[in-house]
Amino acid sequence: MKIVRTGILFMLLSFTMYTESIYSHSVTTIEGGNQSLSAYQGKKLLIVTLPLQQTAAADSLLYSLDTLSAARSAGLQVVAVPAFEDGFTAAQKTSLQQWYRSKLGNQVIITDGLYTRKASGAQQHPVFAWLTRLEKNENFDIDADAPGYKFFVSTAGQLVGVLRPHTKISSMAVQRTLQL
pTM here? Predict the structure, then answer.
């Protein structure tokens, strides 16, 4: 009888376990505000790690993000993230904000600097812990080890795709992943 009770207790616990959601997190914007991702439930999310040096390729990425965000604003929220591991510092925040905003409209959320990599340990931002760790997102175990990583979250809040920096925003791979 004791074994049956333990089995039933385990079964009840397994049905009531809390699964972490991307929507339970928030980010600080580069302008200083706090933005909860729960505001975007029912929309697709595209979370992209940003370059920190102004180059033609970086400008192209930003313009492409802005174009995609504007074209799909009804169903997609773009979150753009500069990473401490890529060299983000508080000293360059103002100049980066000016550069990013010169290319990205206000519909794109630009975060303050975040720790994005697993190697950052306890400093890794909770959004990136969710995006990069299989035990949290239940689909992918991958690290954002450079600017240009693209994480795709479905309208149901599931991580459905991760594309590496070499994949352009205008590519068919991005278009197909946005269909998921």
Answer: 0.89
